[in-house]
Specification:
Layout (H helix, E strand, L loop, with lengths): L1 E7 L4 H10 L6 E7 L6 E5 L2 E5 L2 E10 L4 H12 L7 E7 L17
Antiparallel strand pairs: 1-5, 1-6, 2-5, 3-4
Helix pairs in contact: 1-2
Subunit structure: Homotrimer.
Keywords: Nitrogen fixation, Nucleotide-binding, Phosphoprotein, Transcription, Transcription regulation
GO cellular component, one term: cytosol
């Protein structure tokens, strides 16, 4: 099993969710996040004063899935989250040792 963590722009969430549903993935976890990478934030004006906003709003998506679905899921995320501009986000792929469904006690891929 693998875990995909994707950090994307918030307005792309619905497109990414739909793309993942189209390839057959059912469960995702979404967390609101703030961060910056190469874009280093931006400058805003507030009541005539200029200030730097370092942390930009992002959305973090987490998915645990069987290994054979990873490539399809990554492609779906890349294609639906891409705007072509800096700050589109990142995808991280991690190994998952085990999963346990609390309600039934199922383990492994049956739990996801």
């Amino acid at each position: 099993m693998k875990k995909i963590e994707a950090v994307i722009k918030p307005f792309k969430l619905d497109e990414v969710k739909e793309a993942l549903q189209e390839i057959g993935l059912q469960g995702i976890t979404v967390t609101e996040a703030k961060g910056f990478g190469r874009q280093k934030g931006h400058t805003e004006l507030y009541r005539g004063a200029e200030y730097v906003v370092d942390f930009l709003p992002k959305v973090k998506i987490e998915i645990v899935l069987p290994e054979d679905m990873v490539e399809k899921a990554c492609e779906a995320i890349k294609n639906s989250a891409r705007t072509g501009r800096i700050g589109d986000g990142k995808i991280f792929i991690l190994n998952v040792e085990d999963a346990i469904r609390i309600r039934t006690g199922e383990t492994g891929t049956e739990a996801i």
